[in-house]
Design a protein that fits this description.
Length: about 240
C-alpha cells in the first residue's frame, strides 16, 4: 500500500478523498495550500500526489512543475474544467493523469490504482523512460478482446495474433495499460515518438487509424476524445450496462 499526499483547499473534499484512500489501505496525508504541499512532498516523499488545480498560495500547475523538477512521484491532477485537460497532460506541466470535477470516489481510487501499478512496472530495474524498449517481466494485459504482452511484444485480438509495427504496438500497450484514460496527441508524440524528428499531429492520427484498421470489428474500442486525442474504452460488461 502507498503513501499518498492529497492537496486540496476545500477541506470537505480533501477529507473525503483521504478517507477513501485510507479505506483502500493507503496512508493518506493532507495539505491545504500550495506551499504546504511542497513542504509535505519534500518531508514525506509520498508515492503519489493527488493535486487540485485551484489552490491558495501557489496554484496546482506551479506546484506540479515544482514537484516535477525534483521528484518522479506520479501526480494525479484534479480540475474543474475539461478544457484544462490538454494543459495538464502536456509535458510542460508533468502531471501523469487528471480527473475532472465532479468525479466519483470510485473513479479516483481506480486512477490511483492504475498510476501506482504503472510506477511499479516502470521501477522493475528499468531506467526511467526505457520501459517501452526494455523487456518488462509482466503478465499479459487484457482489455476486452485485446491482450498484449509487453515482454513478448505480442498482441492478440480475440486470440488471433495482430501484426503491428513497433509504434502501433507501443500505442496499444499504452492504451491497454490505462483503459478509459484519454491521451492527448502531444502526450502520445512525446511518449512514443520522443526520439524522432519530423512528427506532427497527423503522425498520431495516422498510426491510430492503422491500428484501428488492424483491430477490425473491434476498431471502435479506440475512441476519439474530441479536442484531446484518443483512449481505449473497454465495452461495459453486462453487469455494468444500464438496464
Ligand atoms: Ca481547490
Amino acid at each position: 500500500m502507498a503513501r499518498i499526499l492529497v492537496v486540496e483547499d476545500e477541506r470537505d473534499l480533501n477529507d473525503l478523498v483521504a478517507r477513501h484512500l485510507r479505506q483502500e489501505g493507503h496512508e493518506a496525508m493532507q495539505a491545504f495550500d500550495g506551499p504546504d504541499a511542497l513542504i509535505a512532498v519534500a518531508a514525506a516523499k509520498p508515492d503519489l500526489v493527488v493535486l487540485d488545480w485551484m489552490l491558495p498560495g501557489l496554484d496546482g500547475i506551479t506546484v506540479c512543475r515544482k514537484i516535477r523538477d525534483q521528484y518522479l512521484v506520479p501526480i494525479l491532477m484534479l480540475t474543474a474544467r475539461v478544457e484544462e485537460a490538454d494543459i495538464i497532460l502536456g509535458l510542460e506541466v508533468g502531471a501523469d493523469d487528471y480527473l475532472t470535477k465532479p468525479f466519483r470516489m470510485r473513479e479516483l481510487v481506480a486512477r490511483v490504482r492504475a498510476l501506482l501499478r504503472r510506477v511499479e512496472l516502470d521501477s522493475r530495474g528499468l531506467p526511467i523512460g526505457e520501459s517501452e524498449t526494455a523487456p518488462i517481466e509482466t503478465d499479459m494485459i487484457t482489455v476486452g478482446p485485446i491482450s498484449v504482452s509487453p515482454d513478448m511484444r505480442t498482441a492478440l485480438i480475440n486470440d488471433a495474433e495482430l501484426d503491428l509495427t513497433p509504434k502501433e504496438f507501443d500505442l496499444l500497450v499504452l492504451f491497454a495499460s490505462n483503459p478509459g484514460r484519454a491521451f492527448s496527441r502531444d502526450y502520445l508524440l512525446e511518449r512514443i515518438w520522443s526520439n524522432e524528428y519530423e512528427v506532427t499531429d497527423r503522425t498520431v492520427d495516422t498510426h491510430v487509424q492503422r491500428l484501428r484498421k488492424k483491430l477490425g470489428d473491434d476498431a471502435g474500442l479506440i475512441r476519439t476524445v474530441w479536442g484531446i486525442g484518443y483512449k481505449l474504452q473497454p465495452r461495459p460488461t453486462a453487469a455494468q450496462r444500464p438496464a
